[in-house]
Design a protein that fits this description.
The chain is mainly β. The protein contains six helices and 29 strands. It has a five-stranded antiparallel beta sheet with strand order 1-26-25-24-23, with no helix packed on it. Strands 2-29-28-27 form a four-stranded antiparallel beta sheet, with no helix packed on it. It has a four-stranded antiparallel beta sheet with strand order 3-4-5-6, with no helix packed on it. The two termini are 28 Å apart.
Length: 417
């Protein structure tokens, strides 16, 4: 069964201004197409695929972080609750560290700050320390915790983590705002914000926290973002920032400014200096989706380009040069990760409910290799969907991915050798 056509994807974008109608039509269309498709297998791959932990439903989270520390320790989330239901129904999630050689979980705790797409933003900051978000009930606020696996000591910080640069600093955002405007990526311990609260842009935005000194600062406010090449419709919209990714040098980072006007979403992709907060606008279009740093200057991104339409591009943040990736773009939006000239990405479920996983071994000579196809059951939908979110560990010739092809959410390892 073929992927969705460019016309189908374009119609989906046009319907974004009417989310209720879009959801209804999409549900009917997908159901009919699934029933008409004959599904032979739930997974098709020539490579060895093994679950990391199968005693419970498990997953890692987003595609921009590697669950392995390079020394055989793997981080992952597990759930005691049905992950096909919205995450707000689950009171907590388990944070685990597993010895990949023995297969044993050697450390575990719980967090109340999570969603099914990104988990608790669990991530290694060194090969001996990791960070994740949690909720402090005494202070009624989201926090983050750093665990040192040498002695399992835990250090708490007053802000939740979105992205971290080694053990030097991390960036934070308002997950309560995300819960209100984009619950897929929000946390659910605090109520949704009111319209009055959402309109307060000066004291909200991107925080920077020094991991060593605990020093906190509002690096960039939402008011700063909205005043940069401001538009008239900004006054009518609801605003949020999300998807921070610090580049490998730690000197700058990218993020999305998303604003909703009359039910329609608009995207702007920004580059920011990690010290001064100085902003540069990289893209201002109807669609900016997923991206990943290939090195400190080159960003692979899926967006709506004025010359090529919806496509994958490699964007050099220094020269502004754009390299169009046509052979990959025909598969539509996905979640790219990689390093240098090597990359993996995935697709959303096609008409038959199959998600594809691709490897590109040389971005100078685009020829995507299909690593596997994975069935996505209809019961995992909306905020409870399960994207593959592939994470390439090229030196180990391994891809970690989340999938529900078995009917349960699981973190898997695909071996390229």
């Amino acid at each position: 069964m073929s992927e969705y056509t460019s016309l189908e994807r374009r119609l989906a974008r046009l319907l974004s201004s009417s989310p209720a109608i879009k959801a209804l039509l999409k549900k009917a269309y997908v159901t009919v197409m699934r029933l008409s498709a004959y599904k032979k297998k739930s997974v098709v791959s020539a490579f060895k695929i093994t679950p990391i932990y199968s005693l419970k439903e498990s997953f890692f989270g987003y595609y921009d972080k590697n669950p392995c520390n390079g020394k055989g320790m793997v981080l992952f989330h597990s759930s005691d609750f049905d992950t096909s239901r919205p995450p707000g129904y689950a009171p907590y999630i388990n944070i685990n560290m597993l010895d990949e050689l023995s297969g044993e979980v050697i450390w575990s705790s719980q967090s109340k700050a999570f969603n099914w797409q990104q988990g608790s933003r669990l991530q290694w900051i060194t090969d001996e320390k990791f960070i994740y978000s949690d909720f402090d009930e005494l202070d009624a606020r989201y926090v983050s915790k750093v665990v040192n696996i040498k002695d399992y000591s835990v250090t708490q910080y007053r802000y939740p983590v979105q992205d971290a640069y080694k053990d030097q600093y991390f960036l934070s955002l308002n997950y309560q705002r995300l819960r209100t405007l984009r619950p897929d990526y929000g946390y659910f311990c605090l109520d949704e914000m009111t319209k009055f609260e959402l309109d307060k842009l000066e004291g909200d935005g991107i925080w920077k926290v020094d991991i060593g000194t605990h020093r906190e600062s509002l690096l960039i406010s939402l008011a700063d973002v909205c005043s940069f090449e401001a538009k008239r419709e900004f006054q009518e919209g609801n605003h949020k920032v999300n998807h921070f990714q610090i580049n490998p040098s730690g000197q700058s980072f990218v993020f999305l400014h998303r604003y909703i006007v009359s039910g329609k979403r608009y995207d702007r992709l920004f580059l920011a200096d990690a010290v001064s907060g100085e902003l540069a606008l990289l893209s201002d279009s109807l669609l900016v989706s997923h991206y990943h740093w290939l090195d400190s200057q080159n960003l692979v991104v899926f967006l709506d380009d004025e010359d090529n339409g919806e496509c994958y591009l490699i964007l050099n943040i220094v020269t502004g040069h754009k390299k169009f990736l046509p052979e990959l773009s025909k598969y539509g939006d996905g979640h790219p990760s990689g390093v240098g000239n090597v990359m993996v990405t995935d697709t959303y479920p096609n008409r038959a409910g199959m998600q594809s996983l691709f490897l590109l071994e040389d971005l100078d000579h685009i020829n995507p290799a299909l690593l596997g196809s994975f069935y996505h059951p209809l019961k995992f939908k909306g905020v409870s969907r399960c994207d593959l979110h592939p994470r390439l560990v090229w030196n180990k010739k391994v891809v970690y991915l989340d999938s529900v092809y078995s009917g349960r959410r699981q973190l898997y390892k695909l071996e390229l050798n």
